[in-house]
Amino acid sequence: MVEWITSTGLTDYNEAVAFMEARAEAIHAGEAEEAIWLVEHPPLYTAGTSAKPADLLEPDRFPVYESKRGGQYTYHGPGQRVAYVMLNVGERGRDVRCFVRDMEQWIIAALAEFNVHGEIRDGRVGVWVPRPDKPLLPDGSVREDKIAALGVRLKKWVSFHGLSINVEPDLSHFGGIVPCGITQHGVTSLVDLGLPVTMEDVDVALMSTFDRVVTPRCAG
């Protein structure tokens, strides 16, 4: 059983990390169920384990938190749904690649509920949306905007941190960083794509697609 937790208002980042670490430890010890926690944060930047100092363009704009998750710099803020996944990967096949692939496919399936076609790109973490309505890139290729980010950590084969989907954040807030170290593409959101989607709509999509996409046990 996976417990779904939804917090209202804005959740302090340090409090979120403390909760995740404690819950992951309890899951490992067999004292708690797996959990998915849906939150929003106040505006902030997080630096993953691969973050490059040069990618923090405006260090004084918002609080910056060092994170032990994988990845580089990301932004969290109001209008962005963050889903923290505390799942027992040890009992789900101990296949990290399969687990990450499931997380990506979960995002794609949730976006598909709104007829948004999300795609994965080699060498670019997260989920991307082609933008043929935008000017082509200098090399003549179609611009692609990032709509969702992904960064997880495993401790004792239990995951924490997770994913974020841009519902209706202030996209200008991404300007203080180079999101995930990628400069040639932009960021977008469901509302930016012209879809009148609410946070509650996204929550329903995440809940309804999770069991369909995230396998109880990865086969590799």
Radius of gyration: 17 Å
The number of E-state strands comes to 11
**Helical fraction:** 10-25%
End-to-end Cα distance, whole Å, is 22 Å
Low-confidence stretches: none
Question: Which band does the percent of strand residues land in?
Answer: 25-35%
Helix count from the secondary structure assignment: 3
Q: Which H/E pattern describes the elements?
A: EHEEEEEHEEEEEH
| Average pLDDT over all residues | 93
Overall 3D form: globular
Describe the largest sheet. Answer: 8 strands, mixed
Q: What would you call the structural class?
A: alpha/beta
Explain how this protein is built:
The protein is 22% helix and 28% strand. It has 220 residues and is α/β, with parallel strands linked by helices. The strands form 2 sheets. Strands 1, 2, 6, 7, 8, 9, 10 and 11 form an 8-stranded mixed β-sheet that branches. Helix 1 (13-28) links the parallel strand 1 (2-6) and strand 2. The chain is globular.
Kindly summarize this structure in a few lines.
The chain has 220 residues and is an alpha/beta fold. It has helices spanning 13-28, 96-112, 199-213, and strands spanning 2-6, 34-39, 44-47, 64-66, 73-76, 80-86, 119-121, 124-130, 144-155, 158-166, 186-187. Helix 2 (96-112) packs across helix 3 (199-213).
Topology diagram in text:
Blueprint: E1 2-6, H1 13-28, E2 34-39, E3 44-47, E4 64-66, E5 73-76, E6 80-86, H2 96-112, E7 119-121, E8 124-130, E9 144-155, E10 158-166, E11 186-187, H3 199-213
Parallel strand pairs: 1-2, 3-4, 9-11
Antiparallel strand pairs: 2-6, 3-5, 6-10, 7-8, 8-9, 9-10
Helix pairs in contact: 2-3
